[in-house]
Amino acid sequence: MAELSIEIKILSPIHLGLGQADVNIDSEIVHDAQGFPYFPAKRFKGLLYESALEVWEMFEISGLGTENILSPEEIFHRHTSSNVQLIVPNFFICPPEEYKRLCQEWQFLQTDETCREIFTPVEVLNSFTTLRYQTQLIDGVAAEGSLRNLRVLNAGLKFFGKVTLLNGNERGLNLLALAIGNISSAGMKRNRGFGRIKCSATFDDGSTVETRAKKFFAKGA
Description:
This protein is of the alpha+beta class. The protein has helices spanning 41-62, 72-76, 96-109, 113-118, 121-126, 170-182, 209-218, and strands spanning 2-10, 85-87, 129-134, 137-138, 141-142, 148-153, 158-166, 197-203. The protein has one domain.
């Protein structure tokens, strides 16, 4: 078993859609019951799989051998069976233990009537996000009824979590390191400058994405 401590840094406003709307927000983002935004496990695992495929394809196109990296299918079980298992959690605005304490403190504040009116989930979410507005233009004029808004996470936020690889090996860790370093965007409207991210990881042996990549290519893999 190997554990990877992951950090996702938001470099530009990002929209991780909830798939729901209300009377005030047309496109809401994912957040927990306290109002803290998070990066969903399923979404990150999908990004990691896409990135792993890109890495594999780059190796094939460039003529580099793939014998020192595990295939994405073996880790993500997309087209083949394997005993390797990748466990991906939701990622929160601080490391797991700190996040747990933060939620407990928020719940404690809810026991006081005055604090409960101030520290609402909406107010908490507002402190991490901004509303963006957009409209459709026809010949330079806003189309009637086309005004829409969406909530985006502010640039500079970080999300933390631990990914676990069961029954893996160095080849699997090599692929994960390269795939994590290759992820650069997420969420909606990436073609408009939204959703730029940078992912980093520290492995349980103390190595990082950078040190693993350097060692990997130094071997002439």
